[in-house]
Design brief:
Blueprint (H helix, E strand, L loop, with lengths): L3 H13 L8 H19 L4 H8 L4 H21 L4 H15 L2 H4 L10
Length: 115
């Protein structure tokens, strides 16, 4: 969901380093999972109060960096696979609307096939 200016900067950064050769879909998807895990690790075993403190301290930058890493890799993957991320998200939301109608899902955390 990065804008065109940011995507151009990302592609230029990658091109200057000749990293396209390493950024195959499998590698990008794997790296995306690793970075998502690093984001999870920031919050692991912390209470809600500890998380609130973390997010209001200089340590917040770690969260921002991990979110940026996830976004960068997802942006590369979408670019390389010619996927319009906004269109994909809207399509998935339409599917979720059918799976999780408000009358069955409101205040309910169960999966659609468990209702």
């Amino acid at each position: 969901m990065v804008n065109e200016r940011v995507m151009t900067a990302l592609l230029e950064f990658r091109r200057k380093r000749n990293w396209e050769q390493f950024h195959k879909p499998k590698e990008l998807a794997t790296a995306l999972a690793v970075e998502a895990s690093e984001l999870q690790e920031v919050f692991l075993w912390k209470t809600e109060e500890e998380i609130a403190h973390l997010l209001s301290s200089p340590s917040r930058e770690k969260v921002l960096d991990e979110i940026a890493d996830v976004t960068i890799l997802l942006s590369y993957l979408c670019h390389d696979l010619s996927i319009d991320l906004n269109a994909a998200v809207l399509s998935k939301m339409n599917k979720n609307e059918a799976k999780y109608p408000v009358e069955k899902s409101y205040g309910n955390a169960r999966k659609y096939d468990e209702n």
